[in-house]
Amino acid sequence: MVRSRRVIQAPAHGGRHCPSLVQRRACQAHHGCQPDSDVPLREESAMILPGSLSVSRHSNETVDIRKNLRLRNPDDPESNAHREYCVQFEVLKVSKACHTDSDYKPLREGGLVCVMCETAALRRDLNWRCGGHGVAGHSTRFFALLAPHCHGKWMRAKENLDRKGDCCSNPDFIFV
């Protein structure tokens, strides 16, 4: 790294001499993330909708709010139904705005919530998973789409992702 400066006014009448005008410093080597690193997963943020929209999406196509969002999976979503999964999170921190919206009441500090990754939210560029599903033992940020100021942090409660267990039968939220 190099930085330089210039003299605007030369020293006069016994003034001090200007220090070096050029400074150099060696850069620290950066080797980047290892291919199997979980750092990118920890830095993702989850975008969520209430789990109640999951049921309405299947029963009434016109109610699906995600229809207006960019579809990340261009393949037929029904052909990827076997890839759906659920994640259980322990809520670590929640903004006050989450407490004012009844759809986001399950978000209580210290509480457990279940979030489902449906086929419409699966992302091919993330190896067929939902963005923001986190890493066990590390906190991840979440943002609620229907309540703009509702956000916080949570931590994945289990290492394994749940395919069709209790969590998936009645999810609190769905990934977008």
Fold blueprint:
Layout: E1 2-4, E2 22-24, H1 39-43, E3 45-50, H2 52-59, E4 85-94, H3 97-100, E5 112-117, E6 139-144, E7 151-156, H4 166-169, E8 173-175
Parallel strand pairs: 3-6, 5-8
Antiparallel strand pairs: 1-2, 3-8, 4-5, 4-7, 6-7
Structural features, described:
Strands 3-6-7-4-5-8 form a six-stranded mixed barrel. The chain has helices at 39-43, 52-59, 97-100, 166-169, and strands at residues 2-4, 22-24, 45-50, 85-94, 112-117, 139-144, 151-156, 173-175. It contains four helices and eight strands; from the N terminus they run ββαβαβαβββαβ. Helices cover 12% and strands 24% of the residues. The two termini are 42 Å apart. The chain is α+β, with helices and mostly antiparallel strands. This is SBSPON-like C-terminal domain-containing protein. Residues 79-162 form the SBSPON-like C-terminal domain. It holds the Pfam family SBSPON_C.
